[in-house]
Amino acid sequence: MCIFCKIIEGEIPSTTIYEDDVVKCILDLSQAGVGHTLVIPKKHYANVLEIDSDTFGYAMKIAQKIAKALKKTFNCDGVNILNNCGEAAGQTVFHLHIHVIPRFFNDTVDVKWVDNSSKFDPKNFEELKNKIVANL
Ligand code: AMP
Ligand code: ZN
Hints:
binds zinc ion; 136 residues; HIT family, subunit A; binds adenosine monophosphate
């Protein structure tokens, strides 16, 4: 059983913010920012590519609910709602979860990427778009 399945079963302790039949929301042990919460579907899905869209949609709805509660609680300047899908994307626990992280100006949270706009000619976007659209 994976670590989040064990948390959901109550075999590993966690601090639950919210729970219903579909999801359990717990405080992340690493607390990237104070209040950092994980929204975890109770059923095991490895990642976003495996979960059904209804359950993922519901989990995102709860992530929004958590984000609003964090805003109210900490009066943060912003919130990141994010998911790491796959090891290359930074996923370390392979049971889907959504991070909800309160953000403040000048905090220490780092979810940045570099601006590559100088390397990509927007003239090629049509071709790029067509490749993606073919797989929708
Ligand atoms: P990710 O890298 O997106 O897979 O995120 C995994 C997250 O799970 C990390 O932020 C960890 O701090 C968190 N985590 C791992 N084990 C536990 C645990 N037992 N309780 C709460 N959070 C955990
Ligand atoms: Zn699991």
